[in-house]
Structure formats: structure tokens, C-alpha cells
Specification:
Blueprint lengths: L17 H12 L14 H22 L3
Length: 68
Amino acid sequence: MTGRTNAITVVLEKDVRNDDAETILTAIRMVRGVLSATPNVSELSDHIAQERVRRELGDKLWNVIYQK
């Protein structure tokens, strides 16, 4: 017996304007079997998470370049 997928999450490379995202949403809605495609508006918590990851990766890169 094979499993069944009930949803697929698409993550965009970067935040895009709502009007620009509409063409992406339209394309996804055209795929056979898609019931709905709704945008998720980025929030402050998203920005904070991105900045923390960027800082963590920057620190790791710095430690590789300038080993103690």
C-alpha cells in the first residue's frame, strides 16, 4: 500500500511582492489536482529567523577563515 500526499509546500527563494506572486499562484492553481493555492505573508518573526541564520553562518565562515 502506498502513502498518499495531501499537501505540498512551496518555499520561495526570497520574499516577493503580492502582485508579483499572483502569477506564481495562478500557475500552481493550473496544476491538475490543486484544490487551492494561498499566499503566506511574511512577518517580523520570518525576518528575525533569517537574520539569525545569516549571522550564524557568517560566524561559522569567519571561524573557518580565521581559525583560532
